[in-house]
């Protein structure tokens, strides 16, 4: 077989979208081109900017390849942002210049190709970039400095003396286990999308939602503010000790700590206000000082001890000292494992220092996991080494006196006796001033050069205080900008290129200053332990919850985490909170639940795609699927209502009444049929504006603002009946589907087209065919309150002046494109059903047995607060001779149903003949629908006309249904006599037999039965299946 001629082969490369030279040489960022010459889909007029006016070939399409700009929310300086073409642009004819109502290219203003010279001048110089940090400088060093705080230098030797080396290691490893698990969870959350400002609050709130995120954001910001006080008190305590050693005293020890602490935190505030660049430089300096102090400590443990140091309990590395200090030696009120843990744990809480400045990191998704985990690893190693070395070199108690050497005749049993020293006297008298149980500065004692340890203490305490002083305002700033709580918005204002929260700094300063006045490190540390544990518990739970919901949006790039490990970490944190300080744990959870309750009540208008939303969907889906295994039972019957409201805001009374029936009880779906003529479908497809009206979110918003628990479903159909049929057959999910159809009464059928009346009643027949119950609501003032003649309202089931297909669809999209105008919120009109009904009556005319729906609906209404004071009266038809017996039978039956209705009245006059005037009015109403019975016409022509016009009423139809017609006329007279002052009339709706009763005659029955009545009338007909039972199974 010969190969085809190369000249006849289609070269597809020739039809590729060509890049301009500027694009080909453009810098590539984020997987896309930065050049401005590529096809720009930002407006309707310029469909493909780079292709000029040439016709589109088969391969030069509007479909662009994937690009970073299509997914980002931010602009890149120096080039115009590109937008993905909308479905309308891809799908519709380019000659159609008029987009549908909803068509918006983006929230950004539409940009054309041309730009003014002023704009070009303004964009010559790029905006100055704020300071950004990498993972080492921004996260690892910052976290290590925050972890290496006051506890390391001033309390770790004391904790080692109390708990022993073994349990101290357990405390360190348990703390590191909690922080390590939290670090893994933080890494997973931080890599599941772009992280912005707000640190821990941002991570939790965007994962668990505003309810828990907001509460923990406040707690975490407060805990960081208190941590500033803790580290500052540690610094002031060291300075005070140095002053006392040199005989310098200002007031007394406590007040000296307070004075030094206030001065120190004021200086730190000045550094913070100077900006992040100055703060980061200070952190580097502190880090170097701490590393030098560590080196001094390690060297000091190796150097042989001098007599002065031996007198204070330091003997260099000794196996006996290590063995003695390996076991616990509890002392004092805090002498317990959890007492020591509560004091040590704040030293491990600096792991979120890097995450808290997430907005100042170059790449938070990379920096937070790497920097946080590395910081946890190295600080854990350092804690283990220091606790082991100090425990192997220094005894628990020493006097510090050079005269306490061991005498030859002394009876000494202490470990120091083996090395020529006798501290038994001070041990017995509890007056020892040195040793790791008594001297907080033991690390300085051991070091080769003590001033370096002092400098290390200064560096550790000041760096930790500075990190917390920066973290708290940045977390609080993000919380304030989200506007979840009142009265805190003023602290969300940022200043400068870095948007520094200066007001937040001042608030943190005030809180820290208040806690510095406590001036006792062992009192402040347990306070913040519970707050940090609470934060860690929620971070771990956030990771677990996001994983367990199986949301497609949970795709963290950090894979080294386990949802069950995160859950374990959350449980451990909660347990430890109560084991440490149960009352502080209760306070922490009380604050969380108080703020949670407030946020749930206020329902802030934010949508962050949280795992709580995903979990709600999972639960709903699971419960719906579970109902498939549950058989229906009459005891569990609920009226699940499909309400043909049109736009819900157009018939608020209908919505309010049915909401009273279904709220917190059963399903309610507001259905809207938007009609469009078949010609529009054939010529241009369904008009987009009509389709958008059917599915508009403003209807759901209106229902939510009215606090109506209802779903909304809109459909587009050629006519009302077709759309209603779509809703009847397609609404609902599984067993959660409607079983009762509710409509407004068509009061204008006498003036409307006969076909409209015929179609209206056909909807009722369709509902009966599908085994629906049917209810019609009629009010004297009408239901439709819509004012605009252009609103998409189906007048097929109300008293509006329009016919059924009131929407005249646009012939084509040939009109000019109007500027986009935002849709205004629908007005919330009040109705009588929103008010308390007072001491009126609900009159129930149970004239035919429909399965009990006529009784059940008034019972459900009477359970509502608005209707609770109304008395329910039940009217039934009967004979005058057996009136009392029939009344007792009905009362007994209702009593078995346990409905609580006691007022029953038998009406024998419902079977009497109506007044002639009423009959005459009824016959006059039917005149326009009657078939002309001209004797000159043959029977065949009359039959053909009735087939063409099925709404026609013949004399045979009238005669066949004469008894039913007279009964409806008489019932109207009875209703006027007995129910003039009722709050609501509920009456069993008659049923017109298909084929025997024309639709217009049936509608005339319903109209005459309910006309000229002041109270609202609800015509009810069940599907002839029991909805009430007096059996228990």
From TrEMBL:
Organism whose genome encodes this protein: Gasterosteus aculeatus aculeatus (three-spined stickleback)
Residue ranges constituting the Amino acid permease N-terminal domain according to the UniProt record: 58-108
The Amino acid permease/ SLC12A domain, residue ranges: 138-642
Residue ranges of domain SLC12A transporter C-terminal in the record: 651-791, 827-1032
One GO cellular component term noted in the UniProt record for this chain: apical plasma membrane
Listed PANTHER family: SOLUTE CARRIER FAMILY 12 MEMBER 3 (PTHR11827:SF9), SOLUTE CARRIER FAMILY 12, CATION COTRANSPORTERS (PTHR11827)
Keywords of this entry: ATP-binding, Cell membrane, Chloride, Disulfide bond, Glycoprotein, Ion transport, Membrane, Nucleotide-binding, Phosphoprotein, Sodium, Sodium transport, Symport, Transmembrane, Transmembrane helix, Transport, Ubl conjugation
Subunit structure: Homodimer; adopts a domain-swap conformation at the scissor helices connecting the transmembrane domain and C-terminal domain. Interacts with KLHL3. Interacts with IL18R1; this interaction is increased by IL18 treatment.
One GO BP: cell volume homeostasis
Family statement drawn from the similarity comment of this UniProt entry: Belongs to the SLC12A transporter family.
Protein's name according to its UniProt entry: Solute carrier family 12 member 3
Cross-referenced InterPro entries: AA-permease/SLC12A_dom, AA_permease_N, SLC12_C, SLC12A3, SLC12A_fam
Membrane topology of this protein: Multi-pass membrane protein
